[in-house]
Design brief:
Its EC number is 2.3.1.9. The protein is of the alpha/beta class. 36% of the residues lie in helices and 19% in strands. Strands 1, 2, 3, 4, 5, 6, 7, 8, 9 and 10 form a ten-stranded mixed beta sheet that branches. Helix 2 links the parallel strand 3 and strand 4.
Length: 380
C-alpha cells in the first residue's frame, strides 16, 4: 500500500459567533485557507485532484457544494473538483481520512482535506429547521421502533456520560478551567502562530478566557435542572476554516513538497447513538491495536472537547497521560466550528508534534449518531 504524507496544514483563527469572522461568507473562509495552503506548500494547484471539505449545516451560504465554491472563490484552477461531506462534528477529520485513503489506494497523488463552518452566519441546526418548522419527524419509523421516542441530543448524551462515569460538576469545571489555562498559555507563548492564517483583522483564537475562574463557572445555571452540564463545560459556538494537504511519496518527490507527518492508521467506529459521545473510547482501542501501538506510545493527543465528560471518560478508559492530551487546550477554550474542527485539530496536532519533538500523534472526536474517527500520525 502506498504511503500518505501530510505536507501542509493551516487554519484560520477560531472566531466567536459574534466576532469579526462571523461576517465572512463561508466560501470565503474556505477560500482563505485553501489559498494559504497552496502558498505555504508551494504545490501547483492544478496538480490537486480533489478538495474534500467537511461542513455540517449545508444550507443557505453553506449549500451548493461548499468545497467547489470555496476553491473557485480562491481563484484556483477550474480543473480541480470539490466535494462537501457531513459526518457531523467529525466531517473534516473524515475529509482527512478520505484524502489519505485516496492517496494510499494509489488512485490519487495530491488531495486537499478541509473544513468550514460559520456558526454565526448559519446557526447550528439550520439544516434540520425545515423538518421542525413543518412539524415533520427527524427520525423515521425504523429508528423509532429500535430506539423509541426518547430524546436524542448531544446535551442529553453528555449528561448520560456524567452519570455513567460518575463525574460531577466540580470535575467538569476543573477540566474546563484547565482547558482555558492551557490555551491561554499556548497563545501567549506563540504556539499557534505558525498554523494560523490571520483573516479580517483576527490574528488569534477569540474564545479563550484567560481570566475565567471556578467561581465564575459556578454561577452559571445548568442546561437543565439537576444536570451537571453548563455552558462553561461545553465547546463554544464558533467560526473557522482549516485545510490539510495530503500527498503520495511520488508527489512529494515530483513536486518538491516537504512532508510533515506520515499517516499511520485511519479508524472509524460506531457506538451507542443515545449516549452519542462515547465512540472515541472504542475507536481509540481499535486504532491502536491496528497500528501495533499502545497509548503510552502516543506523544500528543487531540480529542475534541465537545463537552468535558468526553475527554474525561476517554482519559479514564484509555489510561492516557492527561499532560499529553490537548496540551494547548481544546474546544471548551478554543471553540468548535463543527465541520472545520477535524482539520483544525489535525493542524494543531501536526504543529505540536513538530514543536515538542514528539513522534506519534492521535486525533479523535465524538460525532453525531454515536461515531468517532481516530487518526494516528507519525512526525517526519
Amino acid at each position: 500500500m502506498a504511503e500518505a504524507f501530510i505536507v501542509g496544514a493551516v487554519r484560520t483563527p477560531v472566531g466567536t459567533r459574534k466576532g469579526a469572522l462571523a461576517a465572512v461568507h463561508p466560501a470565503d473562509l474556505g477560500a482563505h485557507v485553501l489559498k494559504e495552503l497552496v502558498a505555504r506548500t508551494g504545490v501547483d494547484p492544478a496538480a490537486v485532484e480533489d478538495v474534500i471539505m467537511g461542513c455540517v449545516s449545508q444550507v443557505g451560504p453553506q449549500a451548493l457544494d461548499l468545497a467547489r465554491t470555496a476553491w473557485l472563490s480562491a481563484g484556483l484552477p477550474e480543473t480541480t473538483a470539490g466535494v462537501t461531506i457531513d459526518r457531523q462534528c467529525g466531517s473534516s477529520q473524515q475529509a482527512v481520512h478520505f484524502a489519505a485513503q485516496g492517496v494510499m489506494s494509489g488512485t490519487q497523488d495530491i488531495v486537499v482535506a478541509s473544513g468550514v463552518e460559520n456558526m454565526g452566519m448559519v446557526p447550528m441546526g439550520s439544516n434540520v429547521k425545515f423538518a421542525i418548522d413543518a412539524g415533520l419527524p427527524l427520525f423515521g419509523d425504523g429508528w423509532t421502533e429500535r430506539y423509541g421516542a426518547q430524546e436524542i441530543s448531544q446535551f442529553r448524551g453528555a449528561q448520560l456520560m456524567c452519570e455513567k462515569w460518575g463525574f460531577d460538576r466540580d470535575d467538569l469545571e476543573a477540566f474546563a478551567l484547565e482547558s482555558h489555562q492551557r490555551a491561554a498559555a499556548a497563545r501567549g507563548a506563540g504556539h499557534f502562530e505558525k498554523e494560523i492564517a490571520p483573516l479580517a483583522g483576527v490574528t488569534q483564537d477569540e474564545g479563550v478566557r484567560p481570566d475565567t475562574s471556578l467561581e465564575a463557572m459556578a454561577g452559571l445555571d445548568p442546561l437543565r435542572e439537576g444536570w451537571a452540564i453548563t455552558a462553561a463545560v461545553a465547546s463554544q459556538i464558533s467560526v473557522g476554516a482549516s485545510a490539510v494537504l495530503i500527498a503520495s511519496e511520488r508527489a512529494v518527490k515530483e513536486h518538491g513538497l516537504t512532508p510533515l507527518a506520515r499517516v499511520v492508521q485511519l479508524s472509524l467506529v460506531g457506538d451507542d447513538p443515545v449516549y452519542m459521545l462515547t465512540a472515541p473510547i472504542p475507536a481509540t482501542r481499535t486504532a491502536l491495536k491496528k497500528a501495533g501501538l499502545s497509548i503510552d506510545d502516543i506523544d500528543v493527543t487531540e480529542i475534541n472537547e465537545a463537552f468535558a465528560p468526553v475527554p474525561l471518560a476517554w482519559l479514564k478508559e484509555t489510561g492516557a497521560d492527561p499532560a499529553r492530551t490537548n496540551p494547548n487546550g481544546g474546544a471548551i477554550a478554543l471553540g468548535h466550528p463543527l465541520g472545520a474542527t477535524g482539520a483544525v485539530l489535525m493542524t494543531k496536532l501536526v504543529h505540536e508534534l513538530h514543536r515538542s519533538g514528539g513522534r506519534y500523534g492521535l486525533q479523535t472526536m465524538c460525532e453525531g449518531g454515536g461515531q468517532a474517527n481516530v487518526t494516528v500520525i507519525e512526525r517526519v
